[in-house]
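Troubleshooting log. The previous structure file for this entry was overwritten by mistake, so regenerating from the original sequence record. Sequence copied from the archived sheet and checked twice against the printout by T.R.
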Amino acid sequence: MADGRANNGAKKGVSRGQGRKPKADEIKKLDLMDSVAAPKKAWQALWLKCEEGDTPAIKAWLEHRFGKPKETVDLAAKVQVMKSEAELLADYDRAKRIIEQGR
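Regenerated output below.
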């Protein structure tokens, strides 16, 4: 590779923990969370924050209820080219003449 790292630091044939975690791990995490607080109570607490007008709570509620909006990137960036020094001086001279004519 151009940056000198073989396999970008990865070791071939060895599980390095990259990628999505197994579904069993995800289920264990959810079970642990449910043992601490019942999901219904958590949703009720979140809804109470929404009723208080808590913006992050409202955002979380809407994202879970309707899905997170797709993020887009505007690739049509507008580029403004700087004027040359001569063009800037000409603009300055024109503006100066207009101001002097107005006096």
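Helices lie at 23-36, 39-51, 55-66, 85-102. Archived copy saved in two places this time.
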